[in-house]
Write a structure and sequence with these properties.
- The protein is an alpha/beta fold.
- It folds into 2 domains: about 10-195, Rossmann fold (3-Layer(aba) Sandwich), CATH 3.40.50.450; about 210-420, no CATH class.
- About 30% of the residues lie in helices and about 20% in strands.
- It has helices spanning about 25-40, 55-65, 85-95, 125-135, 150-160, 180-185, 205-210, 220-225, 250-260, 270-280, 305-310, 330-335, 345-350, 405-410, and strands spanning about 10-15, 45-50, 70-75, 100-105, 140-145, 170, 190-195, 220, 235-240, 280, 295-300, 310-315, 320, 325-330, 340, 340-345, 360, 365, 375, 380-385, 390, 400, 420.
- The strands form 7 sheets. A 7-stranded parallel beta sheet has the order 4-3-2-1-5-6-7, sandwiched between helices. The chain has a 5-stranded mixed beta sheet with strand order 8-23-22-14-9. Strands 11-20-15 form a 3-stranded antiparallel beta sheet, with no helix packed on it.
- Helix 2 (about 55-65) packs across helix 9 (about 250-260).
- It is elongated.
- The N and C termini lie far apart (about 65 Å).
Length: about 425
Amino acid sequence: VWPRGVIHERRVAIVSSRLGRELESQEDWFRRLRMACQRLDPTTDVLLIVEETAAARFVERAAELFGLRCLRFALPDPQEMDWEAWLRRVGDATAELGRSPAAQLSPPLWDSGNEDESLPPVARFPLRDRVQVAAADSLLALHVRRGGQLQQLLSARLDSRLWPAGSVFVALGTHHVSPAVANDLMDRGAVGWLVMGHDYDVSDELHDSTEPKNSERPATAISQFVASTRQWPYLTHCTRRRDGPWPDQSDDEFLDDLLLERPERDHSPLAALTRILAEQRIIASSAGIRGGYRMVSFTAAPIAELDSLRVFRPHRARWDFEPYGISLRREWLRSVGGRPVVYGDDSVWRELPPDQQPFFQKRFSRSVKSSSEIDWSIEQEWRHAGDVDLSQVPDDAAVVFVSTESEASQLRPISRWPVIVLQSDES
């Protein structure tokens, strides 16, 4: 169904296999997406967007940045096979489409039943991917995983006579498309797209933003720091890489950083720590907190023991206790409302008064991967309700730590507190 009329412009789909979590490491992919958008004609081309496909949100945002129109394909709800209900939903959605053209895909006209067993393998792939490959007049593949669904769908299109020759393009000279995959697709009729240069050079901007600056603050080794404190009087907040926007960043701002190759696209643990120091604030989060309370977590474990706590959490797809963070004096954090968590089971949670529930942590749980028992009390966790305002922390009540001396050199100019190194560059 075409609620606003059939689109006669050339429908261009930019397709890709999944990129993974560390999007800032995909500079080449985003550079090619940017270049592809810059080479389209806004008067004759429309970008085909199918919701929930791998590249959809990146392509849609790029279209906004470069003044291109989008044709959005909306798919039927798998649970909604009633035609009357679907038509009502289409009518409601049409009023919200704005000026962008859209197409609504209907539920199946008939139930194929047992005929599914005779269909080719690609017919069982997700509908969103099949629609994107089939509905485009022209396809550009930026990342094709060998043997993956996208390669099979592209091969099926190239082997069919339903689409004209030369309508599938594949990016060359990039690790996102291996030579074996590129050769296989080109043998079937795909056209290689070789990028000879960049659309603009941002290397100077990137290097300047990360260039270590001189500082009068002397280097502080962890051994010297720990040796000066017989008892560990600090509570430590470790930073970790951030997948997706920062807590105070919009999704569009996050995508713009990636698409325009801005230095701010770096979401590593070091980048998170840099933001904390620059903003003088640790932003609270409700992730992993029962009850959805916004909290900032700390550990009472000595900084020298952090390495023993470092572990990968598969259910969260992240490392805990990375060697980056800030330690605050215990008495200061306590004075602004910080307190140790209450470890226990569900019965303990139910007995806690409302003002103490934000500080509850279930003590035991099972690992998703190995089913082994995890005792969370080993983390010696403390929490602070809401953001922590670091501008109120005295100069002698905190210490910042990083993994290498070069990273410490980057942070010392913006840190009011000593910056120590958990391990040297030479280790």
